[in-house]
Amino acid sequence: MATTADAIILDALCARLDALTLASPLEVAWPNVNFDPPADGYLAVSHFPAITDQVTLGDLGQNRHTGMFQVSVFVPEGDGSISAMDVAGEIIAQFKRGTTLTSGGLSIRIIQPPY
């Protein structure tokens, strides 16, 4: 169970990705979990927390945790880029700017348009 802010954020974002039903289902390589890449393609998740900003005054002021949640799409060699771009488009739609997730007492908001 996630208890720190960065872990709660990653858990919520992974759950959002896991809830996505792709037109062409692909297995997911989750961070720090053993994975044998299948020949027919897969997704790989990476999480890059950034510097925490204090957004209200005082020693007990609220913090804003930012970072990047990256989902890489891998397709078989020779399939071209179109199929990977279609999958990426489905993932982008799942994480559009303005999306708000709630988990562990935190509100997690997508503030940058995904690309």
Short characterization:
Helix content is 23%, strand content 27%. It has helices spanning 5-18, 82-94; strands at 27-29, 42-49, 53-54, 63-64, 67-74, 100-103, 106-109. A hairpin with an 8-residue loop joins strand 3 and strand 4.
What does this structure look like?
The structure is a single chain. By secondary structure, the chain is α+β, with helices and mostly antiparallel strands. The protein is built from two helices and seven strands, in the order αβββββαββ. The strands form three sheets. Strands 1-2-5 form a three-stranded mixed beta sheet. The mean pLDDT is 93.
Task: Reconstruct the topology from this structure.
Blueprint: H1 5-18, E1 27-29, E2 42-49, E3 53-54, E4 63-64, E5 67-74, H2 82-94, E6 100-103, E7 106-109
Parallel strand pairs: 1-2
Antiparallel strand pairs: 2-5, 3-4, 6-7
Helix fraction, binned, reads 10-25%
Tell me the series of helices and strands, N- to C-terminal. Answer: HEEEEEHEE
Strand elements, count: 7
Main sheet overview: 3 strands, mixed
Roughly what is the average pLDDT, rounded to an integer?
93
Cα Rg: 16 Å
**SS strand fraction:** 25-35%
Strand order of the largest sheet: 1-2-5
Distance between the termini: 29 Å
Q: What would you call the structural class?
A: alpha+beta
In the predicted model, the low-confidence regions spanning at least 5 consecutive residues are none
- DSSP helical segment count: 2
Taken from the alpha-carbon principal axes, the silhouette is elongated
